[in-house]
């Protein structure tokens, strides 16, 4: 009896701990995980600049038709969620809209969007362009001299490494309808400065100032050229401009604050306390000159700011204000302040929660955690008939609207998520019900819980929260669609009934922030890492009277991926990039048979590279394996058809795959020569992974220029879903191996034609100048008389086909 009581106590206590974890944010842990996954082992850092360069080359290659498209005929369809936002740092009310209802917002991984009526919860957002060279939006500003001119800075430089590096500054001269990337910020002498553009402001002369990671840059010609206005040893944490044109800049290194009264020609330091880190500034626009009211807040890693200070004389002297527990230990990641435009005593400050003072900082009233959504990054007051009672907030939950947070007389403000159509959700992983035509998709997101989307195929739908926290991997039983597994950070997994959403804690946990595991649908067994690899949980009889036990693996630490084998009680384990016994290791593949059963055997079947395994996919048998690695600077794809006795790199220089993180890979079960990869540059594919050169090509039609974290295949109707980290979920359908193909018509681009029997190129089949065409049939390729290949075209016939 005592044992049963203790067991019940343990489960209840564990559930309490998990609930507490789910209600907290862990941006630093996300950052550390992302570093370990993508770090270049040779450099010892994450070379974000490579992704920017590869993205630019990809876009140019697509324009010039020099990039292979590999698997042809695949079109991705957006699925949502269209009601759940994502991390938003850029907000701007359209200065050309007389109603001041039109708002622009930028997702850090999902691009620039606009909404024509931010006051309406049902007014939808419209995306600008999914295929900018970079859709990591960090800031936005307009020119007060000519309000048709907008500037958008890319890159998110607040240390959160699941974000992307920027590619410069985009400019619009027609009020946001069309945009172009400023060459001076992408390829000029200051291009490195614009990899992370923290803030942009424009003065009444039209001069543009950009806060970057190496100082303040100034342009007097609309961004055609730039010059250093204020150099710095750390990144510019904030840049503000007063109503009289006076500039204020803050730096992260030493909490330095500077002021310029001559349009950035010279600067004077006005730092109140130089011993902290990131500083956020806010100016009272109803004051100016020698009476300028300034608020400043500094981070030192605590739950409260290091200090909150105020100056009523433009920075000549400062007073320390009452402190408040705003930051939750993550001020380096989320910290923002804004002053009411007509009331210098009303200030809104945000960290992981929102706070407001109505008496100039003497007292603060904090909102409860999660109301509105945690992690605040942008605050804008909306003018309406002379009042500024309405407030718009950008945070990790997207865009939040309050009709009354700017009203000091309202002690109980209202907050509403206005995210209709604003699909910038950052997914980690997904799963689908294995029912043909069914719309049920389950996925874990960054700081937006585990969501289910149930809209019809090829229809964008809303998401419903089924589990809290940072949802990580999710699983749906492919034989029993009512059985699902959901989790939050650190791997507190639940069994969930998909018909009722009722959940049961499985009693398993993990030592990793983003854990790895896999579910065996055939045998209702769940495997999940427990102690970074030295032990792994095995949950038997999921969906019934389950039992949870963990077993030693004899695998070194730093397990990064687990895949359930085709044989019962068999798992494949991949290791991450780790330090062990005085040396660095990585890229090892282990096969464990009879795991957790009598006769367990652990066998090292491959040491692929110095890097971390990001996925393992099984082909027709357990002898055929596809392995990916996500680190920069390593060969990212390996293939074996003999159980690991021999591995072949499928990522050589001539193979066409850029040096970017490869997050996931899958075989096409209809044609196992075909492979799809989820990368930080969308989805790539090969028509023949067994070929000496797999000929990787981009497969992004209908998708977006976005980082993709996982692919999931559903056998019932050959549907593939991709989890993007910034644009939600997309799906497509793979086709079965075609037969008896007769090609007609002219070919002007790049194509690969596969057949399980034969291909006939008849008299109307012309491979035009500059085109590249490959015919691959299992039995034969027949070119009938008058089949034509024009000059400077490339035609290849292969007797291989698809199986």
Automatic annotation (TrEMBL):
Q: Keyword set for this entry?
A: Signal
Q: Return the InterPro entries for the record.
A: GCX_COOH, WD40/YVTN_repeat-like_dom_sf, Xyloglucanase_GH74
Report the leader peptide range. Answer: 1-19
PANTHER family per UniProt: EXO-ALPHA-SIALIDASE, XYLOGLUCANASE (EUROFUNG)
**Protein's name according to its UniProt entry:** Sortilin N-terminal domain-containing protein
Organism of origin is Emticicia aquatica
